[in-house]
Amino acid sequence: MHRPLLLNHQMRMQAEGVELMLKPAPSDYPVHELIRERWSPRAFADKSVPQDVLRSIFEAARWAPSSNNEQPWAYLIATKEDKDGFAKMLSVLVEFNVGWAKSAPVLALAVANLSFAKNNAPNRNAQYDTGAATALLSVEATARGLAVHQMAGFDPEKARQVFGIPAGREAITAIAIGYPGDPASLPQPLKDREMAPRTRKPIAEFVMAGHWGHTAPFATK
Length: 221
Description:
four-stranded antiparallel β-sheet, 36% helix, globular
């Protein structure tokens, strides 16, 4: 259903003379095209993300699975139109990430509640579940022609202070969201990284059966 949205954005940007960096994953086995097309660019177009699109990508996060249906995730969001909020988001990123993330139209922090709401017992799956929600957000964003780049490079304690994140909750990743842009807009070192081939470990290295280190039979060609 959303495939035309992705194609429409690509065609429009190319018609405007912008060289979009499309990097479908060179998968060893067939996967859905949205999985192949999802990647984490640093070049973003100077284009706002409509509110209805933002609602849809966070609706996708809403329907992620979670332990005991706890839904431990929350998101702090700032768009470029909110200059103060956007500046606060940039202030918690490491300098390297500020250099490119400032061009994204939307910045966010994913926050996990580390305890179960019903009894305050530790929820050891909270970060895992928040990651699952953000993964679904990323796939929905890809379907709508958006790119999502998650960042470990931020200061969680500064984020706590700047945004008043309560005790027991932890910011676990920063996120840049926007329409893909022209890699030529990046400094040369980042442009080189943007254009480098995508690589992943083969599944034979991490899919095991019977005993740790024993590759599952189906995982070998």
